[in-house]
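Design job #97: recover the sequence.
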């Protein structure tokens, strides 16, 4: 059983990765419906929170149906991160997660995210400050190291556990790799199998099928897996993995009707959360992923990403269902 503090996540939990501009409440709604066991907000800037920035504050929105859910923070200043953790705790999440893994330039080059992998003492001090300022469980998401010459995840795991984090998620790439090349799970396995490590270790990177999830469990003994990009437009992956692990059988792939129905649920939730204008605009990034495999989808996509009328968008989605209802699709 994987437990984070008093949060019981079951035998082999599937976590939804925090993804900027993706894992907002509407997206989390459909992932929860299809089997995600633990979810996180998009990562939130500590500086934005303490300065009361509208975008940062809005990312604190969490809903009862999402639980258990963590608020993920990033930043480069220890005091700002401590203050941000206190603000985040007031939103009543189940835990606080610290991002030491984001590789993108405008985060890492400001000394936040994966940049802390170059300064382990500062990472430890920052984490300790957050652990001490909240009664909530504190967890961390990070990478193997900054580059191939500094894969220091084993030291990081021990030191962070020693100052009180209650779970660690490891993405199987270095910062230098960004998202390129295959994820290397061997070091994740070494951390998990280190006799000093008592906290849950979750693996992340390239889990895009039930077989891959089972392989990572069997080969490396991780306590669960975190799924990111493979869930975009395909929330079914969580239940597909659970069913496969339980039975050894594959669930039937979602039909066009399933895809249209869930896409509409996502759209309605987006409008409910962000309003009729922004809700429609923010949904546009998801359509292509929901309908992977449909031939000549470009024409439909152009309509979906340019229409501003809810009723017209629904009409296009209904047309997709009618045109392709007998087309077998796989998520490729």
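Job complete. Output follows.
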């Amino acid at each position: 059983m994987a437990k984070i503090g008093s949060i019981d996540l079951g035998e082999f939990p599937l976590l939804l990765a925090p993804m900027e501009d993706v894992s907002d409440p509407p997206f989390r709604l459909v992932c929860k419906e299809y089997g995600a066991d633990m979810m996180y907000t998009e990562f939130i800037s500590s500086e934005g929170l303490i300065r009361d920035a509208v975008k940062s504050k809005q990312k604190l929105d969490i809903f009862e149906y999402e639980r258990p859910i963590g608020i993920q923070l990033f930043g480069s200043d220890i005091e700002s991160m401590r203050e941000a953790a206190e603000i985040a705790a007031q939103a009543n999440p189940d835990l606080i997660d610290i991002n030491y893994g984001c590789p993108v330039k405008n985060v890492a080059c400001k000394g936040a995210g994966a940049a802390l992998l170059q300064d382990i003492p500062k990472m430890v001090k920052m984490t300790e400050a957050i652990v001490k300022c909240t009664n909530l469980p504190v967890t961390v998401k990070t990478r193997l190291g900054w580059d191939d010459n500094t894969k220091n995840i084993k030291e990081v795991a021990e030191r962070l556990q020693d100052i009180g984090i209650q779970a660690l998620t490891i993405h199987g790439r270095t910062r230098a790799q960004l998202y390129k090349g295959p994820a290397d799970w061997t070091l994740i396995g070494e951390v998990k199998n280190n006799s000093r490590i008592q906290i849950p270790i979750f693996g992340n990177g390239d889990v895009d099928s039930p077989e891959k999830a089972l392989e990572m469990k069997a080969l490396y003994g991780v306590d669960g897996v975190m799924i990111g990009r493979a869930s975009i437009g395909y929330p079914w992956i969580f239940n597909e993995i659970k069913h496969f692990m339980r039975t050894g059988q594959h669930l039937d792939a979602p039909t066009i009707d399933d895809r249209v129905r869930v896409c509409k649920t996502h759209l309605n939730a987006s409008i409910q959360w962000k309003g009729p204008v922004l809700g429609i605009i923010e949904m546009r990034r998801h359509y292509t992923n929901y309908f992977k495999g449909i031939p000549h989808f470009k024409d439909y996509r152009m309509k979906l990403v340019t229409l501003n009328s809810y009723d017209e968008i629904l009409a296009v989605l209904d047309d997709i269902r009618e045109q392709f209802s007998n087309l077998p699709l796989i998520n490729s």
